[in-house]
Amino acid sequence: MNISISPTATELGNSAAKCVAGILNEAVNLNGEARMVVSTGSSQFEMFQALIQEEVDWTKVTVFHLDEYIGLPVTHNASFRKYLYERFINLVPVKKFFSVDVEGNTAGRIKELTSELHKKPVDMGLIGIGVNGHIAFNDPPADFNTRDAYIIVRLNDQCKMQQVNEGWFKTLKDVPDEAVSMSVWQIMQCKTIISVVPHLVKADAVKKTLSRKTTNKVPATILKQHPDWHLFLDRNSASGVIRY
Questions:
Q1: What's the rounded Cα separation, in Å, for the pair 84 and 81?
Q2: pLDDT over 70 at 159, yes or no
């Protein structure tokens, strides 16, 4: 486990982007390509802004989508696909983007994504940590046992309120009840995991992640078992574990 603490979210984003670019470039140099999983949310804004400025041969990078609400079209303001297209995918010439499409045959799309995901190892996963300690949409108590690559999950109220507080939805009732999410097991198969976790609202989740034993009641605690986990914090998100 490697922990980096920056004074601000912007500096955190810059540091994390350099780390991401280094891992991708190393994979391209070794294998002729790189494969990555990407997350979304307001906590990733600064990182994506910095990442698109890094020197990476994006034409050799395949990108997999982490999760998406069921029932939201890609045109909805809160759609994670819309987020990624606007802040990442449309700004760099990636080789291929495998999105979690929820229109039509969701089960069929999950099968397609699983097939593509399992063709080769994934070099890196950008995996955020939610206010309730979730990773992807695996809310507590998360399923640590399933070996399915993607699963359909129900969102708990704390998760929904985070989305409201971040401005994606007006009220709790507007947030969809279900989502397609990459499973905890599949996330842990990434060779390297980078977690970008700024802002004071994440301080309690960071504290619980680092201080508690592995438990599905704080799903992010399982990341401590990963052999190559990089946690990027700012002073606000680290304030529950370090005093300044």
A1: 5
A2: yes
Could you tell me which residues are beta bridge partners of residue 220?
Answer: none
Q: What single string gives the DSSP state of each residue in the chain?
A: -EEEEESSHHHHHHHHHHHHHHHHHHHHHHHS-EEEEE--SGGGHHHHHHHTTS---GGGEEEEE-EEETT--TTSTT-HHHHHIIIIITTS--SEEE----SS-HHHHHHHHHHHHTSS---EEE----TTS-BTTBPSSP-SS---SEEEEEPPHHHHHHHHHTTS-SSGGGS-SEEEEE-HHHHTTSSEEEEEE-SGGGHHHHHHHHHSPSBTTBGGGGGGGSSSEEEEEETTTTTTT---
Do 163 and 40 touch, CB atoms closer than 8 A?
A: no
Mean pLDDT of 39-59: 97
pLDDT tens-digit map of 50-98: 999 999 999 999 999 999 999 999 999 999 999 999 999 999 999 999 9
**Amino acid at site 97:** F
8 A C-beta contact, residue 89 and residue 81: no
Q: What is the pLDDT of residue 244?
A: 63
Cut 0.90: pTM above it: yes
> How many Cα atoms within 13 Å fall on the side-chain side of residue 51?
28
Q: Give the gyration radius of the chain's Cα atoms.
A: 17
